[in-house]
Amino acid sequence: MYVPNHTHPSLYVMSDLLTPRQPDPNNSPDYQTVTSSITRYRLENGRTYHAYQDGSYMFPNDLYECDRLDWQYYCIKHLMGGELHFAPFSQNDPPRKVLDIGTGTGIWAVDMGDEYPTARIIGTDLTPIQPDYVPPNVIFEIDDCLQEWRFRELFDFVHLRCMLGSIRDFKDDIAVKAFDHLEPGGWLEAQELHCSIQCDDNTMPPDFPPKVHFDDLEDATASEQRPLRIAHTYAQGMRDAGFVDVVERTYKIPINSWPINRKYKELGKMWEENFAQGISAFSMAPLHRIRGLNRKQIEIMLIDVRKGLSDQSVHAYQKFYVVWGRKPYPGEVPEPRGEAEMTDI
Ligand SMILES: C[S@@+](CC[C@H](N)C(=O)[O-])C[C@H]1O[C@@H](n2cnc3c(N)ncnc32)[C@H](O)[C@@H]1O
Questions:
Q1: How far apart are alpha carbons 319 and 109 in whole angstroms?
Q2: Which tens digit of pLDDT belongs to each residue from 291-331?
Q3: Is 116 helix (H, G, I), strand (E, B) or coil?
Q4: Residues 10-54: pLDDT tens digits?
Q5: Which among 157, 345, 164 has a CA at the least distance from the CA of 268?
C-alpha cells in the first residue's frame, strides 16, 4: 500500500531547514515562507520552471514535462532490458539506504522502493513534482545537489539519471560528494544521455537540422556552466574521485524507427515520441535566456528540427551512458580495473 509522501504537505528543504527534520506546517512561519517560495514557479514562454534556486536548471517542471519524463523513463527501461540499475544489488543482496539525486517525478525511486521493500530510498530535487502517494520506504526532499550535501547518514547506493544540463562538473558536483556520503563498498551509478546527434553510415548530412540544433544547445548550455555534453566525463570523474571497479556501458538510442532490429525500431519510435513532446522544452529556455530568441522565433526554428527527427532515411542516434563504480574499503589497494562496453543497434 502506498502512503502520502513526506513532501506533501510537509515540504522539507534540506539546505534551509536542517532541524527539526520535519517542520510543523501549523506552527512554523518558516514553513510557510519556504513552501511558497518553492512552489511560486517562474512562468516563461508558456512553461513553468522551478522556483527554488530559480534559474539553475533550464528545463520546465509543468505537467507536460512530467509526463515526458515518465515516458523517457519507460524508453530507458526498455533500452536497458527492464533493469533499474547495474550496480550489483539484487534481491539476495539488496541496498539498504539509497539516494536518488535529481529524482524528477520520482518514478525510479518509487520503482526501487517496490523492488527493495527493506531499503530506504530518498529522492531529492529542486522542484516538488513527486507523487502524493508512494511506497512507505520512499521519501522526497527538496535539495540542491550543487550545494554542500548535508545528509546525516551514509548511503550504500547513490544514483542519478539524466542530469545533463543540471551540473557543472561531474567529479566536483557529484562524484566527490557521493564518495563522502557512501559507506565503504557502496556504489555510485550515473545513467546519462549524451545529446549529440550521431550517425555511423554517412546517411546524415552535415547540415542535418537536429544535429545543428543540438550542437547549438550544447554550446549554449556549456557557456552557462550547465553542459548537456557531459556523460562522457562520468567514468573518469568517478575514478578521479577515488571510485574503483568503474564500468562504463554505452548504448545507442535511434532518433526514430529507422533500425531494422525490432527492439531498436520500437525504441526509436518511443524516442521519437519523447522528442515530439520534449524538443520545445529542451530548446525554449536555453535559446531564450542565453541566445535572446523569443518563443515565436524558437518555434519557427523547430519546424525543420522536427522534420529531421522523423526522417528515417537518416540513421541517426544519441548515446546513453551507464557508469557505475564502488567506494573502496579502507586500506584496499585499488586495482587498475574498469571496463568500457558498447552495445550496437
Ligand atoms: C531530466 S530530469 C531527470 C529526472 C529523473 N532523474 C529521471 O530520470 O526521470 C532532471 C531533474 O534534475 C533536477 N535538478 C536539476 N538541477 C538540480 C539540482 N541542482 N539539484 C537537485 N535537482 C536538480 C530537475 O529539477 C529535474 O527534475
A1: 24
A2: 999 999 999 999 999 999 999 999 999 999 999 999 999 98
A3: coil
A4: 345 544 433 333 444 555 545 555 667 788 899 999 999 999 999
A5: 345
Render the burial of 232-268: b for 16+ CB within 10 Å, e for the rest. Answer: bbbbbbbbebebbbbbbbbbbbbbbbbbeeeebbebb
Q: What count of other Cβ atoms lies within 10 Å of the Cβ of residue 74?
A: 12
- Indicate if ligand 1 lies below 6 Å from the C-beta of 57: yes
Q: Is the CB of 104 under 6 A from ligand 1?
A: yes
Three-state DSSP state, 325? strand
Residue that is written with C-alpha cell 540544433 in the block: 213
- On whether the CB atoms of residues 258 and 314 are closer than 8 A, the answer is yes
Distance 102 CA to ligand 1 centre (A): 3
Q: Provide the Cα torsion 4, 158, 253, 219; round to 10°.
A: 100
Domains of the chain from N-terminus onward:
3-342 (3.40.50.150)
pTM value surpassing 0.85? yes
